[in-house]
Amino acid sequence: MYAAIAAARNGSSVLLLDKSLVGRGGATIMAQMTVAAAISHQEPDHWTLHLADTKEAGRDICDGVLSEILCEDAPKRIHEMDQWGAHWAREEGHIKQVVAPGHSRSRCCYVDFLNTGPAVAGTLRRQVSKMETIKRLSNVAVTDVLVHDGQAVGAVGLDVIEGEVVTFEAKAVILAAGGLTKLYSRNSASTNMAGEAYALALWAGAELIDMEFVQFFPIAHLAPRLVGMDPIMWDPFRYKLGGRLLNGNFEEFIHLYGGSDAGKYTAVRDLASYAILKEVEAGRGSPHGGVYLDFSHLPEAELRGAFGPVIDRLLANGIDLTKMPIEVGPTAHYQMGGVRVNGRMETSVNGLYAAGEAVGGANGANRLSGNAISEALVFGERAGRFAAEQARHVTSAWNARLAAPAVDQVRTLQEHKGKSGVHPVTLQSELKDLMWENAGPFRTADKLTMSLARINEIQRHDFTDLAISRERQFNLDLQDWFELRAMLTTAKAVVTAALARTESRGAHQRLDFPDSDASFVKNQVLQLKNGRLTVGWTPVVQSQVKVVEI
Amino acid sequence: MSAISGEKTALLRVWRGGPDQEGRYDTFKVPYEDGMSVLDALRWIRRHVDSSLAIRYSCINANACKTCMAVVNDRVEYTCTARLEPTTVTVKPLPKRSVIRDLVTDTTPAEEKLESFNQERGQ
To answer: Is the dihedral of CA A443, A445, A451, A455 positive or negative?
Structure first.
């Protein structure tokens, strides 16, 4: 949505497409945490300090250009969102900022109570609806980006409500479809995040970078069953209140893995996920395959002071934090890798841009808490601005014939009588289990090779004869089919990249190569050439900016 | 949740049909575990019994997207926060919206619909 706003105010006529309802789906609206920006309201700070923290978390492979842009531009976007009425939490007249793990300063803004994502999404929705040159179109899943002579010229989409295929002519296309968490059976995101941005980029001829780095959020809710709340809600509890992380024997354990915890919350995500899964592997997990998070040492008044009505919502779920621990464990949360872009958010295909989580590289091997929404705002603004500039200078190379194969694909599926009896949603479930078991937080060559073989087999065999129901309106089988096609392409990219990086670094943990290897301080680049995924390596563009000490 | 253990079940009576149709109720037997939501059960049905069931949701669990509303036992509810019970539960589409199919009703703002896009493009 930020990209649409920026493109519109730079003179473009914009079409904003969303597979769900505009501004209601995706990841941003689910974010309950914080937005990191060095605005120095809480304490003196500088964007170069934010950059230093981001680089350290990224384990030496952050793209310097992108991480500099992320940290330098974040304050501008926070202030602009403030002017638009985002209602950042305030105290004594200034925007309140807290320390999230890995940040060296109180830098992370939020909206109470656990309302950061809905507030950000709502603010952007209001801004978008005020701009007359943005046309919104909900319920349309983009199936293909159209490219002619190396230039993106439009897209084809499926309107799920009417069951109609729609073609779009454009002078520039921005991929802002988020991440890939739906590839994993344990995930924290919405149902929309099936890795389409990465697949669309590959099919269009663009490059992906560092796809092996999937962030597993360490303390997602596992049990008791909690409805109506985001499974990653425990992070802000830990920022504000601490909380003890205990194994199945009710013992603290993070310190055994080189972290320090002691009721505070300082262990960064990759280390915490690793420690929890190692405890589970050693037979010291909680009943649902995680560990305990305990707040029972805190008085109820303190819990209510920090989270007010949320405490009642928990009680309605049968969870009394003063009396019981809850079970938490790692879940797929975010993709550090993604579409390879330059500082103008341009891919290697002329006229094709990416924004938000779809962009790879800024966060290296591990993303800091608070950097995801910053990235959505910052990269969105730039993608929109530079795409608008592009649109002013090119003439449309649109030709309706380019859309014909994609249009025919939808129509063929609508007439398709699959003999297998297997529906796309069933095969999606198999792929998600395959990825969680074999390309999740712990990886080995054997498991990755096995899962790659199965993905290839699914693409060649199972996928070609799926059963699709006949209804015209709101046919989820049809939507699932296109999702699955993208999921398979993106899953193959993740597994291929994970196989090639024979070391452990940040979120990519190889049990067969447990140490970091200095020769792997480089970025991995994937591209489709004649239908085959090719792997290449490129030196890391290291930031040369000097830290301004405050 | 792909596999649900335990012996308890819930019976879901789900309205099926299209615009201006009388429709019918299909009954699905769903494995039950404590704490499940009605949306959990509807998603289970799509994965294991009938993928043609039309439902709308995005955030799954967080009550953030606000797109999963339906009538559960005569009350308008978000299906993601409506608790499932190991008894018979009736689910039907919202009463004051036109039906698209099954439990999906027309909740898209008029200016975000394909019809509106086609009209503007035609001009």
So the answer is: positive
Handedness of CA A214, A216, A222, A228 (dihedral sign): negative
Q: What is the pTM of this model?
A: 0.94
pLDDT at A501 over 50: yes
Nearest 10 degrees: Cα torsion A232, A237, A242, A248: -40
Number of domains in chain B: 1
Tell me, yes or no, whether B4 lies in a domain. Answer: no
Give the domain CATH number at B29. Answer: 3.10.20.30
User: What is the average per-residue pLDDT within A342-360?
Assistant: 98
Q: What is d(CA B41, CA A46) in angstroms, rounded to the nearest whole number?
A: 49
pLDDT of residue A138: 98
List, as ranges, residues 294-323 from A with C-beta within 8 Å of B: 317-318
Assess A24–B contact: CB distance below 8 Å, yes or no.
Answer: yes
- Which chain B positions have a beta carbon within 8 Å of A483's beta carbon? none
- Condensed to tens digits (0 to 9), the pLDDT of residues A158-177 reads 999 999 999 999 999 999 99
Q: Residue B2 falls within a domain, yes or no?
A: no
For residue A78, what are the β-bridge partners? Answer: none
The kind and range of the H/E element at A141 are strand A140-148
Query: What interface predicted TM-score (ipTM) does this complex get?
Result: 0.94
Is B96 within a domain? yes
Q: Which two tokens stand for residue A50?
A: 């934010």
Tokens at A155, concatenated: 């897209």
Beta bridge partner(s), residue A352 = A173
Strand partners, A510: A443, A513
Q: Is the alpha carbon torsion for A252, A31, A45, A241 positive or negative?
A: negative
Let me know: does A6 contact A89? Beta carbons within 8 Å.
no
How far is Cα A18 from Cα A141, in angstroms, rounded to an integer?
7
CA distance A418 to A402: 27
Residue A237's pLDDT is 83
If you average pLDDT over every residue of chain A, what do you get? Answer: 94
For tokens 């993928």, what's the residue? B51
Show residues of chain B in contact with A25, CB under 8 Å: 58-59, 65, 67
Cα separation, A482 vs A147, in Å, equals 19
B13 belongs to a structural domain: yes
Give per-residue pLDDT as tens, A178-203.
999 999 998 887 788 999 999 999 99
Condensed to tens digits (0 to 9), the pLDDT of residues A93-117 reads: 999 999 988 999 999 999 987 889 9
pLDDT exceeds 70 at position A264: no
Among B83, B69, B85, B60, CA closest to A220: B60
Which tokens hold the place of A223? 């049990």
**Residue-range definition of the domain harbouring residue B79:** 9-122
Domains and CATH numbers, chain A: 2-214+333-392 (3.50.50.60), 215-332 (3.90.700.10)
**Cβ contact B112–A164 (<8 Å):** no
Q: Dihedral sign for Cα B64, B68, B73, B74, please.
A: positive
> Is A185 in the B-facing interface, judged by CB distances under 8 Å?
yes
Phi, psi of A387 (to 5 degrees): -65, -35
